[in-house]
Amino acid sequence: MFEQREYSSSLEKSYQLLIKQLEALIEDEPDPIANLSNSAALLNQFLERINWVGFYLSKQDQLVLGPFQGLPACVRIEIGKGVCGTAVATEQTQLVADVHQFPGHIACDARSQSEIVIPLFKKNRVIGVLDIDSPEKNRFSQMDQNYLEQFCQVLMKYIPEQ
Q1: How many Å apart are CA 45 and CA 27, to the nearest integer?
Q2: Residue 98 forms beta bridges with which residues?
Q3: Where is the GAF domain positioned along the sequence (predicted)?
Q4: What is the rounded distance in angstroms from the CA atom of residue 76 to the CA atom of residue 65?
Q5: Domains of the chain
Q6: Which of 39, 79, 104, 108 has the fewest CB atoms within 10 Å, i.e. the most exposed one?
């Protein structure tokens, strides 16, 4: 039990540092694509046991692939379809332990086993999502969700209204 608490405390400190690094990295850059690109790269460097991290942006009632790190991905996703489209439709983070159990999952990378998708809000409107895939089932925890949502909130302070 002590080991678990120690790991948890260490992970929390790492996430807190990650969020500070994000802010330092993007605070002086006004370009949204540059900031999304560096954010994806930062998460790819920080997160272990993932195979894809990136953004989909809302455009004309669908999600369109944005900056990412990983293998080529699906370019367009309909709102309400798959994990990403569901996150937009429900305006809620989707924490999926096993993507093969998610109704309508869109398999862009057959290696993906679990996924977390966080809606990006600007003025109470979803403008896109952060999507992270892992080749392991049950990769993402409630702690990951909490800190990744904070990461997205900080990021959105530096992304102008579309």
Answers
A1: 19
A2: none
A3: 52-153
A4: 6
A5: 2-157 (3.30.450.40)
A6: 104
